[in-house]
Amino acid sequence: MEFADEAPKLLMLLYGLIAFAVVVGGLLVLLDVVPAWFARRREAALLAAATTGGAGTAAPPPARRRSVANRREGGLGLFFLLPTLLLLAVGLIVPAIRTFLLSFMDGGSRNWVGFSNYTWMFSQDEIFSVLTNTLVWVILVPLVATAIGLIYAVLVDRARFESVAKALIFMPMAISFVGASIIWKFVYAYRSGEYDQIGLLNHVWKMLGGEPQQWLSNPPLNTLLLIVIMIWIQAGFAMVVLSAAIKAIPGDVIEAARLDGVNPWQMFWQITMPSIRPALIVVVVTVSIATLKVFDIVRTTTNGNYDTGVIANEMYNQAFRFGQTGQGSALAVFLFVLVIPIVIYQVHNLRKQREV
Amino acid sequence: MTTTTPPALASPPVKPTGPETRAARVRRRLNNPVATGISIVIAVIWTIPTFGLFVSSFRPEDEIKTTGWWTAFTDPQFTLQNYQEVLFGRSASSGQLAGYFINSMVITIPSVLFPLAFAALAAYALSWINFRGRDWVYIGIFALQIVPLQMALVPLLSFFSEGASVAGIPLTPAWNLEDEGKFVQVWFAHTCFALPCAVFLLHNFISQLPKDLMEAARVDGATHPKIFRSIVLPLIVPALAAFGIFQFLWVWNDLLVALIFAGGGSETAPLTVRLAELAGTRANEWQRLTSGAFISIVVPLIVFLSLQRYFVRGLLAGGVKG
């Protein structure tokens, strides 16, 4: 590592920070200057009206005044929102629409090919296995991660080392998927039977009398082992959110139930579960969306070989490695179709919330 | 859906000191040893893989490759050689992670700052400035949270490399960024992708500020920009911290965006890209993979452990409300 190699990077960082200061500072200044200018103009107009002596023209009727104020608020609101809306349009909305169009074109994005990318998706055996794998991921990860998170949250609630116990489970959230994949690859590591094993799983397996396995090259077990990595990462998130929900159950509800002589099991199913239902739904939805988009784990461990591919990984390969833009885009669109119900459900919830 | 946690603006909620929570009673009745046993088993399973990697990263190369890491307790041999090698090694196969570490930093810092500033402005407008269609704009931004990144990657990449054109009329020039210039692409992409989530999270905080405060300020003749700068910004520091940590972890740990927009070169690729590459091409060089993985983990882990409270608060504000 030479400092000379690193200097341009740090210079770029400096440029970035300067750009940040200029853009944000400039925005704030503009926000100050523009309304002030409007105010001055309005004053000037009022003064002019007053000096010409036209009684009644000085103050516009109240209805019109309100609409003027509203319009100015609208302009200001738009100005506040401008950078966000601009970036979202350029970075997400327009590209998403273009991806949708590209999915009806061929690999080089020159000719329209109708639905052939979609028929390709459902007729190829390997792509079909990618779709079924994704389905297995989306069913297993949210269920198991939420279940483990919930059990753990209940078990350590108010235990003596609660915060330490929680931090241990929560820690994988901070680790990158790539790091997590390497950690688990090491657990699954294989050496042939006559040697000492370096992977923990094979070591345990051998102690139990098994023959060491190449875990990651044997479908369908390998997909399950990759799913374990995702569960390992997501359980901490589930645990934190559910734990907060459990702590938020009002004490008097619990007290009342206890006076009624409810036993712990009934308590759990009839009081805890209904109370934390909203939080449970949030956790399942969030984890499901994260799981649908899973890419890093598959890429780092097997790169989608040995029948472990998932949609996001296949999409990357098609679009960025094989130059099949059309097929990659079709996979991306399919991914979007899968999350649409979740989008609709969330928006419905949000509107209900905003009306309250 | 109703919120299940009070908005934490100033201080974390005080633990209820009244009657013990129901879960605690379940635990007490659940025959304590069993409960403790189960939770210890889960905690051990969750911790051992990382611990194994950590121990291995300090063992000599031939030891890692021939014996399990658990033998280090009976036959301790420790060295810093792996870290030396993977960070500063001269050969192309050694990793040379020090440079990539700097890349990660250069990518992450602006990618956190930009969305934070823009989203704070937008969230304020959506909470306190009255204009028509406000709710629809908010719902639109909210829904964008869930659009998979994959939907935007191909066109965004061509936007950078070829520029945008409508019906043959060029609108923007190609950016043609080389080497270090690619950082700008990555910043731009990360900023766009982070905004929906950031607006949603900050809006949750800003819209819960006391209405009287805002109205009093308006009556006193303060303009929106002034209120935003002098009243709102100081009050939402915890929320900004929460989202900042979120975004930091997200960008630092991201692989997909970096692969596509930063490329794999040593000028711009972050640690994750390099590590994924090592895991693919040098799958048996465990002495490099273990130490390399640990180097990439250490920064987010420090951030996470020291600022955990804000992080959890952000999770709950963003999560439990939705």
From TrEMBL, chain A:
GO cellular component: plasma membrane
GO process terms (BP): transmembrane transport
Coiled coil residues, start to end: none
Domain of life per record: Bacteria
Membrane topology: Multi-pass membrane protein
Keywords, comma-separated and alphabetical: Cell membrane, Membrane, Transmembrane, Transmembrane helix, Transport
Domain ABC transmembrane type-1, chain residue ranges per copy: 131-348
InterPro entries (UniProt xref): ABC_transporter_permease, MetI-like, MetI-like_sf
Transmembrane feature ranges: 12-34, 74-97, 135-155, 167-187, 224-246, 276-295, 329-347
Family matches, as PROSITE patterns: ABC_TM1
Subcellular location: Cell membrane
Similarity remark: Belongs to the binding-protein-dependent transport system permease family.
Protein name as annotated: Alpha-glucoside transport system permease protein
Organism encoding this protein: Plantactinospora soyae
UniProtKB/TrEMBL annotation, chain B:
Keyword Membrane tagged: yes
Pfam families linked: BPD_transp_1
Keyword Transmembrane tagged: yes
Localization in the cell: Cell membrane
Ranges where the ABC transmembrane type-1 domain occurs: 101-307
Main location: membrane
Sequence segments annotated as region (Disordered): 1-22
Key words of the record: Cell membrane, Membrane, Transmembrane, Transmembrane helix, Transport
Cellular component aspect of the GO annotation: plasma membrane
Entry membrane topology: Multi-pass membrane protein
UniProt-listed GO biological process terms: transmembrane transport
InterPro entries: MetI-like, MetI-like_sf
Annotated transmembrane regions: 34-55, 100-124, 136-160, 187-206, 227-249, 255-276, 288-307
PANTHER family named among the record's database cross-references: ABC TRANSPORTER PERMEASE PROTEIN MG189-RELATED-RELATED (PTHR43744), OSMOPROTECTIVE COMPOUNDS UPTAKE PERMEASE PROTEIN GGTD (PTHR43744:SF4)
Similarity section: Belongs to the binding-protein-dependent transport system permease family.
Annotated protein name in UniProt: Alpha-glucoside transport system permease protein
Organism: Plantactinospora soyae
